[in-house]
Specification:
The structure holds four protein chains of four kinds. By secondary structure, chain A is mostly helical. Chain A contains six helices and three strands, in the order αααβαββαα. Chain A is elongated, with a radius of gyration of 20 Å. In chain A, about 45% of the residues are buried. Chain C is elongated. The mean pLDDT of chain C is about 85. Chain C contains five helices and no strands. In chain C, about 50% of the residues are buried. The model of chain D has no long low-confidence stretch (mean pLDDT about 90). Chain D has one domain. In chain D, α1 runs antiparallel to α2 and α2 packs antiparallel against α3. Classes of the chains: A mainly alpha, B mainly alpha, C mainly alpha, D mainly alpha. Chains C and D meet through loops of C and loops of D.
């Protein structure tokens, strides 16, 4: 039973991807899309989803939208501007190093979201996740502090706040 | 300005061809085999660009998963299982020079003959006109007259199944034989039964979680490519190899013990047999219907012809399905996907187990 | 006066011919079996490009893909399509060729791994000497 | 729809232009940066600013060309799906490369200001 409940969100997600990728919504697309999405959902439902009821909470979607807006229009732009400035500067002011930041989220998807956001913003790359999932090791292009808490404020605090609201 | 606009694709074509030459040279010269595999993957990327600029999107869709994804992955597994470095000692210099000269002469003659057969001189290369057969194929692929047409706007898939179905049938059997051969080599081997453990097996948690998200999406895109084969670029082969990327991801990112949760080798063989049976069915379904209602019909027939007036419907409720093409694409998708899944699973059997079995066999 | 596009296309063609030469050299001379397999796959890709080049043509401003974008074509559209689109037959042959090539290549890799298990080396010269 | 088309076209071309600029800068960075780990930051610019942004731009341009008919939705949809794939998979590639290079000692982290991971490895907290 739990297998079928888990399959539903995966099927809906894959059906959306199917329709967007196909780019048309005729009867043929909808019928084949539903069949394909149900099959994929049943096969992959148990590995993708851990808790189905999170999908029913609407506020998560609004927080997700806010996360996306913040990420694309503020975090990415700021990081790109910063690293491009460093590349084009003749003196190339870099001060690289690996710092350790604590991370306080519950689910694996939150870790994925935070780590991917950190890696996707130029200037910071996640090198390693501590086995107890409480620390991330970040290669930082300009190390201003080696204190974990201060580094967390500079790198991942906002991502973490949003990811907690969306995924936990 | 318009001159420049029409020149751009040719410039990109020439640049990517020259870059691919450099990559090929490095791939052949390199002694470190892993680097050689990566250089050949770079060459494949440029070739995909060339295929795209030569206006064959079907090939691009099948070539990128095959030559940039699956083949380098398999080759890297093979290199890790065998020797990392190539031992070039003992090759006489004169032999290699003689081989190089003869190969050069042979290839130049063959290449010149290809140009001559195609376009008389280099002045009009490529030629301005298409061949007569090509024109006939292009004109009849969607004529909207069922007696002469294959009723599919996608000329390539129409040719693959509708005009030259017998070729495709036998080429599929070549692939079938290759997989049977691999199964025969590994006939005593099986994946050891071991419990999958999240914390010790596979890559890091970031790789695992993102693979979990991305796997159903890749599969659904592959299904979309396969099922729209008769409308847009794509088809059963393209969808099958795109879906096979998922199996390789499962094995690389998690481990083979996680992959066996989804399907054992025997289940993959069963699904593959269902796919092959679907291909046979789509070849013979019109003949079976004709036999049942007592009218003349042929195998590999899709739309009605003048001497055999029955055929499958080409549309249902205004949606083009092109007769047997949809059934063929679905079955081919299943057969190709499961065939490559079998090969991946066989290749990922741990080496200790294999050596144990082989030792008993040799003695 | 040769058209510049023809010149660029000829450069492409010659580069592919050179690729073929290098790949054949690799097949014949390099001793490692896996290197031979890499060279063989490059050689196969070159032949695929030859087949596609046979079907390529010149059209103004550039040839089209052999796929109709309207569902119920008019007569004028079909005439335009036949005058512009490239030959659809070589892609159809190459399509199966790529997939079959991958399957056969995997089978060859299987065989070479098996050979390494039995002989302990992949150097073809050493394997040949072992027979005697 | 007609009024929206020029806007989509202009946004699309701007995004493609940003992508071209980012690619060039990332190429310069690749050559100027001193070691593998710092070059990964240039590679990130290449993946997000240089690939994700222009793919979105190309999709918007494709949406705005009405002569393509129905097929423009196909082109744009495939573009968007590709962009999402890239957004999820590009950082995974960077992360796995960095991790593998660090622990196999294939690339040396020099110059470095601080390396807390090495200290934790030496302390025996992490075994890899």
């Amino acid at each position: 039973m739990s297998r079928i409940i888990r399959a539903i969100p995966v099927a809906i997600l894959t059906f959306i991807v199917y329709i967007v990728f196909t780019g048309s919504a005729t009867h043929f697309d909808i019928v084949t899309g539903v069949i394909g999405a149900v099959i994929v959902g049943i096969v992959f439902g148990s590995v993708v989803i851990t808790n189905t009821y999170k999908f029913l909470q609407l506020q998560r979607y609004f927080w997700g939208l806010a996360y996306a807006l913040y990420y694309f229009f503020i975090a990415e732009v700021r990081a790109h501007y910063d690293v491009i400035k460093r590349i084009l500067n003749p003196k190339m002011p870099i001060n690289p190093g690996i710092v350790k930041i604590p991370i306080d989220v519950a689910s694996d998807y939150s870790i994925l979201a935070v780590a991917n956001s950190i890696t996707n913003t130029p200037g910071t790359v996640t090198v390693y996740v501590h086995p107890n999932k409480k620390y991330l090791y970040i290669n930082w292009i300009d190390v201003v502090t080696r204190e974990p808490e201060e580094a967390r404020k500079a790198i991942s605090y906002v991502f973490e706040k949003f990811a907690k609201k969306v995924f936990d | 300005m318009s001159d420049l606009y029409s020149l751009t694709p040719y410039v990109v074509l020439a640049v990517s061809a020259l870059a691919s030459t450099i990559a090929v040279y490095l791939a052949i010269i390199e002694r470190d085999l892993i680097k050689a595999v990566l250089y050949s993957a770079i060459q494949s990327t440029f070739y995909a660009l060339i295929f795209y600029l030569l206006m064959v999107p079907d090939i691009v869709l099948v070539y990128i998963p095959v030559a940039v994804g699956l083949l380098p992955a398999i080759l890297i597994i093979a290199v890790k299982k065998t020797e990392k470095y190539e031992d070039v000692g003992g090759v006489p210099r004169t032999t290699s020079i003689i081989v190089l000269l003869s190969v050069t002469v042979f290839t130049l003659i063959a290449g010149y003959l290809l140009v001559v057969s195609h376009a008389i001189t280099f002045d009009v290369f490529p030629s301005l006109d298409a061949r007569l057969l090509a024109k006939w194929f292009l004109a009849t692929t969607l004529w909207w007259n069922r007696l002469f047409s294959s009723m599919s706007p996608e000329a390539v898939t129409a040719i693959v199944w509708d005009y030259r179905g017998l070729d495709t049938y036998f080429e599929t059997s070549v692939m079938y034989l290759a997989i049977i051969g691999a199964l025969a080599i590994a006939r005593y081997l099986d994946i050891p039964r071991k419990e999958y453990r999240e914390d010790v097996m596979g890559m890091s948690i970031i790789g695992k979680m993102s693979t979990r998200v991305i796997m159903p999406m890749i599969i659904i895109v592959a299904i979309s490519i396969a099922l729209h084969g008769h409308l847009t670029p794509g088809g059963g082969f393209q969808g099958g190899v795109t879906g096979a990327v998922t199996v390789s991801l499962l094995i690389f990112i998690f481990s083979v013990y996680f992959a066996t949760r989804f399907f054992k080798i025997s289940i993959a063989i069963l699904l593959r047999i269902i796919g092959l049976a679907g291909i046979v069915l789509s070849a013979t379904i019109v003949a079976i219907i004709g036999f049942l209602i007592g009218q003349p019909a042929y195998i590999f027939q899709n739309q009605p012809k003048i001497i055999a007036q029955i055929g499958l419907p080409y549309e249902i409720g205004g949606n083009l399905i092109s007769g047997t093409l949809l059934l063929f694409n679905t079955s081919e998708f299943l057969a190709v996907l499961m065939g490559f899944a079998i090969l991946f699973l066989l290749l990922s059997i741990p080496e200790e187990n294999v050596l144990e079995v082989i030792k008993g066999e040799v003695e | 006066m040769i058209d510049l596009r023809t010149y660029l296309f000829t450069v492409t063609y010659i580069a592919i011919v050179v690729n073929t030469v290098i790949a054949l050299y690799g097949i014949f001379v390099r001793p490692n079996i896996l290197k031979k397999i890499i060279a063989l796959s490059i050689f196969g890709d070159c032949t695929f490009i030859y087949a596609i080049i046979i079907g390529f043509r010149k059209a103004e401003p550039y040839p089209e893909i052999p796929i109709m974008i309207t569902q119920q074509p008019s007569k004028e559209y079909i005439e335009h399509f036949v005058a512009k689109a490239v030959d659809p037959l070589p892609p159809a042959l190459v399509l199966t060729g790529v997939v079959i090539g991958l399957a056969v290549m995997l089978f060859l890799i299987f065989l070479s791994i098996q050979a390494y298990r039995l002989f302990g080396t992949l150097n073809i010269r050493k394997i040949v000497r072992m027979r005697g | 729809m007609n009024l929206l088309n020029p806007v989509l076209t202009i946004i699309g071309y701007v995004l493609v232009g940003i992508g071209a600029f980012c690619q060039v800068v990332a190429g310069i960075g690749m050559n100027r940066f001193p070691n593998f780990f710092v070059r990964l930051h240039a590679a990130t610019i290449c993946a997000i600013g240089g690939s994700f942004v222009p793919i979105i731009g190309c999709s918007l341009i494709a949406l705005s060309i009405e002569e393509f008919g129905v097929i423009r939705f196909f082109l744009a949809g495939a573009g968007f799906v590709t962009a999402v794939f890239l957004l999820i998979l590009a950082p995974v590639g960077s992360h796995l490369l960095a991790k593998a290079a660090y622990f196999s000692k294939a690339a040396v982290l020099y110059p470095k200001a601080v390396d807390l991971l090495e200290e934790d490895v030496e302390r025996g907290e992490i075994r890899e």
